[in-house]
Amino acid sequence: MSTPAALEGARDTLPPRPAPPPGPDEAKRPRRRPAPWLPLVVLFAVAALYHVLNGIFHATPAVFTDELLHSELARSLAAGDGLAVRNEGHFFPSFLPALAQAPAWLFGGAETSYAVAKGLNALVMSAAVFPAYWLARALVRPSYALLVAAAAVAAPAMLYHAYLLSEALAYPVFLLALAVAVRELAAPSRAWGIALVGVFALAAATRIQFAALPLVWALVVALGGRRELRRHLLPLAGLALLGAAGLAAGPSVLGIYAGATELLADPAGIARWASLTAILLPFAAGVVVVPGAALGLAAALARPRGAAERAFARLSLGVGLAFVALAGLVAAGDSERPLERYAIYLAPLALVLFFAYVERGAPWRRAYAGLALALGLAAWLVPFPGLADFRFSFDSPVLSAYGTLAHAIGTANAATVFAAVPLALLAAAAFVPLTRRAAHVLGTVAIAVLLAAGAVAYAGDRAMTERALAAWAPAEPDWLDRSGHGRADVLVLPGSPAYFLWTLESWNRDAGRPLWLDAEPPDHDPYPSGRASVAEDGTLLVDGAPAGAGLLVLADFGSRIALEGDVLAEPRDGLTLVRVPEAPRVGALARGLFPDGWAKGDLRYRVWPEAAGGAYRAVVSLPTGLPVRDLAFSVGEGPEEVVRLEPGESVAVELPARRAGDGLRIRAATAELLDGDTANPRLASFRVERLEYRPAASAAAPSVSF
Q: Which of 86, 311, 613, 648 could be a cystine partner for 696, CB 3.0 to 4.6 Å?
């Protein structure tokens, strides 16, 4: 059929016929990105599982008396007794970590409670992914922020979750406090001001070190001049009130940290230890991102892209300097070793600065390349062998990784690895254009480096805690609780390592207070304790009065005692459970005598009760294969009798005594290191076969015999 002439060409002028609706298989749906919280939750779950599994192999509390403090506080809170240590009230300003661990101690046995406490800490510390992401999002895109969050929970410092300390809670709290501070500085408001005061109070109640945070924040505000002071008047007033309350309370508000106000150290010492701590931080941040982070910090300080970047840069610089200086102060005045533990919170900040540097187009390419190469070469100059004192250095995860690797492959090889790997990575990074894809790759490489270092540090942590458990605890660490005998104070004999006591307390709720026999407790054990002594008639005194009837655990690794009572258990050398009567009598005490018969180079032995006239007798020997010994025997202030002790021989020496109280002393100029590969090394000179005192009026004599 033909088309009328009038309609020719009309088809070209009509609107196009609408296309038929697509079928269900043809419909095009827009691509949906996952909700930002979903990858964070997955990351949290993976990190928590990884660290919980590693925490299983952390065998025992081993950092004394810090872990003892937090576990005692957690137990007392769980029992509804408030803050208490060794059954006495104890004020502690940073109590929140103990409160977070308290639910674990609602379980029955110590073994279960300890495992639950480590698991809780792993969950809490892994939660750092959330504030780390939120903090990073103030400056960088979501994919970069996700890498920051992953790096935060990949860091070797995550091994601290297995310790009953403050780090597990302090890590996410620090990142939260910094994120709030950045937002408050960038856009001050009443809500952010109130939140800032609250989060700073929360931080100080988590770790006393974080009292530096409001000081740094206030300094940043002050640098902005009067206008900034007016904009932040509300939080300034709130923090001033809190500070005034703290000053009014005096040093006592610091609790056991009150002594920190008396730390004295020369500026050179502080600078030395601060710098030695600082040189470990690039390794703690994954090395490869550090040059970009340094330039990112410089750019953000000089030409910030916004108020948030300016606030973050100033806070990061101030907090970094404060934490490193604090580490230097404590190291110079007390520990004399690098304290990376005080600066672990800075590692995620380096990745934020690196990605912020990339976001601004990665300027100053020559400076970046030069800095990367210089840092890589400088890694060869870090004196790792001199800084890592053993296979595991608790105060430094980086040194722990180095020490563990050195034990496995040798010091020279480990030093080469810790220098060559950073050099190779930084040399490669120096010549790679910092595109968005390259930044993701470098961030991933940094996370891989952190995971590798963390895995090695975890291995060192496992070995260290296994050694500690074997050295200071029986096969069943909670043996006292299991025995069902009840609460027992601990009589610590002279020369016995306090680690036996502290391990016993950590694992057993029935362990009472320590009683230090003729000794003062160590400086780092300021908690309630008693003083024990022996009266002239042999009565055991506690705080000047005769000891009551009941149970005593004898911490007798470094001395031997003959004490009236019934022996109920001897779970291992160095621990003995006895039931004593009212006013128990001491028959003899040998200071410097180990349970296996070895004696220190200065052995002192005396008996009770006092008796006039008699003789001290000792039978000593020397195993074959050891060099000859010259032993000096003396009683009281009398002359010395020198006896040569040949290997494989034993000698008997008897010396007269005017009275029993004069005591016998045996000295040797040389000694052997025994058990040097354990947590219980000791210097011993000879073996004791028998010690006794023979009164003039009787053939019977109190003695300690082996």
A: 613
Task: Give the residue from 584, 606, 625 where a domain finishes.
Answer: 584
Q: Which residues pair with 666 in a beta bridge?
A: 603, 633
Q: List for the chain the helix, strand, coil content (%; round to 5).
A: 55, 20, 30
The dihedral built from the CA positions of residue 362, 363, 368 and 370, taken in this order, carries a sign that is positive
Q: What tokens were used for 174?
A: 């620090």
Domain housing 554: 479-584
- Closest of 67, 174, 24 to residue 506, by C-alpha: 67
* Residue finishing a domain among 440, 468, 496: 468
The CATH number that applies at residue 675 is 2.60.120
Phi-psi region of 286 (alpha: psi -120 to 50; beta: other; left: phi over 0): left
Task: Give this prediction's pTM.
Answer: 0.90
The answer to whether residues 518 and 487 touch, using CB atoms and an 8 Å cutoff, is no
Residue 460 has pLDDT above 90, yes or no: yes
Q: Provide the 10 A C-beta neighbour count for residue 10.
A: 10
| Chain Cα centroid distance, residue 121 | 13
Task: Give residue 320's Cα distance to chain centre.
Answer: 20
DSSP assignment of 445-482, as one string? HHHHHHHHHHHHHHHHHHHHHHHHHHHHS-SSTTHHHH
Task: Tell me the pLDDT tens digit for each residue of 303-344.
Answer: 999 999 999 999 999 999 999 999 999 999 888 899 999 999
User: Do 617 and 669 fall within a single domain?
Assistant: yes
Tally of domains in the chain:
3
Determine contact, residues 665/633, Cβ cutoff 8 Å.
yes
**CB-CB contact of 582 with 546 (8 Å):** yes
Q: Which of 9, 115, 4 is nearest to 54 (CA)?
A: 115
Name 364's Cβ contacts closer than 8 Å, sequence gap at least 6: 295, 299
Can you tell me the distance from the alpha carbon of 82 to that of 73, in angstroms, rounded to the nearest whole number?
8
Domain match, 456 and 550 both:
no
Counting residues of the chain whose pLDDT is more than 90, the rounded percentage is 80
> How far is residue 665's CA from residue 179's CA, in Å, rounded to a whole number?
64
> 580 and 595 share a domain?
no
Residue carrying structure tokens 């320590």: 514
Residue 621 CA to residue 647 CA, distance in Å, equals 8
| One domain, residues 433 and 526 | no
Angle in degrees, 0-180, between the axes of helices 307-330 and 167-186, rounded to the nearest 10: 140
pLDDT for 8: 39
**441 lies in a domain?**
yes
- pLDDT tens, position by position, 587-646: 999 999 999 999 999 999 999 988 888 999 999 999 999 999 999 999 999 899 999 999
167, amino acid identity = E
Long-range contacts of 509-513 (CB under 8 A, 24+ apart): 509/75, 509/110, 509/481, 510/480, 510/481, 510/485, 510/486, 511/480, 511/487, 511/553, 512/86, 512/87, 512/487, 512/488, 513/86, 513/87, 513/489
Tens of pLDDT, residue by residue over 150-188, are: 999 999 999 999 999 999 999 999 999 999 999 999 999
Q: Which residue do the tokens 């990061």 mark?
A: 316
Cα atoms in the Cβ-side hemisphere of radius 13 Å centred on 420: 6
For 289, which DSSP code? T
Q: Is 15 left (phi over 0), alpha (psi -120 to 50) or beta?
A: beta
